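User: Could you check the structure of this?
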Amino acid sequence: LFDAAPAGGTSRRERRQQRTTMNVEHEISLLVEEIRRLGTKNADGQVSVKFGVLFADEKCANLFEALVGTLKAAKRRKIVTYPGELLLQGVHDNVDIMLLQD
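Assistant: Sure, the predicted structure tokens are below.
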């Protein structure tokens, strides 16, 4: 009833979903910038960064409310790759996060 779309318009729920999607896309674009800033290129020209480096970086700590969530969203969109599903500070500090799209 309250969430119904007005004639020819979008509902509150649809607008909220659009904002959330835009925020996730924005966070992923920021993540890509930070991986480029902190990472190094391998012989194939791909950029990678250790999870511990990303997690410990002060700028990243201030930018990302949920770094692991942003990483998971980027992995689902095939923008980055890393082994496993979940990265934890300490345990996975030496895991490489590889940037797939440039």
